[in-house]
Amino acid sequence: MDDWERKAIGLLGEELALAHLTSHGLNLIVRNYRAKVGELDLVMLDGQTLVFVEVRCRSSQQYGGPAASITWQKQRRLVKAAEHLLMKRAELRRYPARFDVVAIATGEPEAKVDWIKSAFTL
């Protein structure tokens, strides 16, 4: 799989995750927040809770599937990116926060979306 295909699958995964989460009442705040320390795929509000969402999309369950690909190093980068966003957007600091993962396994007949709330804490 080349970079173009990988990016296309990633974008599709983000769209599926966003649709899934908004259908469950979450509201989008920021999409694809980038900082030198890391990137946040989606930042959403779930009621009065700020949710940092990592989206993982995989075409196979090999190596443990999409959720298993989030290493402690990746978790640390997500936390750093969240801290960076909160420094830039002071109005978001008033909300309690959590880190969720949306793991998407593409395949036939359709993609399987698994939303893991409070997937990790650091």
Protein architecture, described:
It holds the Pfam family UPF0102. This is UPF0102 protein JM946_22465. Belongs to the UPF0102 family. It comes from Steroidobacter gossypii. The protein is globular and about 40 Å long. The model has no long low-confidence stretch (mean pLDDT 88). With 122 residues, the chain is α+β, with helices and mostly antiparallel strands. It is built from two helices and five strands.
What is the topological layout?
Blueprint: H1 3-23, E1 27-35, E2 38-46, E3 49-58, H2 72-88, E4 97-105, E5 112-120
Parallel strand pairs: 3-4
Antiparallel strand pairs: 1-2, 2-3, 4-5
The gist of it:
This protein is α+β, with helices and mostly antiparallel strands and 122 residues long. The protein has helices at 3-23, 72-88; strands spanning 27-35, 38-46, 49-58, 97-105, 112-120.
Give the CA-based shape.
globular
Structural class: alpha+beta
What is the N-to-C order of secondary-structure elements (H for helix, E for strand)? Answer: HEEEHEE
* Strand elements, count: 5
Biggest sheet overview: 5 strands, mixed
CATH topology annotation: Trna Endonuclease, Chain: A, domain 1
Put simply, the count of helices is 2
The share of residues in extended strands comes to 35-45%
Question: What is the share of helical residues?
Answer: 25-40%
Radius of gyration: 14 Å
Poorly predicted ranges: none
**Quick one: CATH class?**
Alpha Beta
> Architecture in CATH?
3-Layer(aba) Sandwich
Strand order of the largest sheet: 1-2-3-4-5
Mean pLDDT: 88
Number of structurally distinct domains: 1
> What is the terminal separation in angstroms?
33 Å
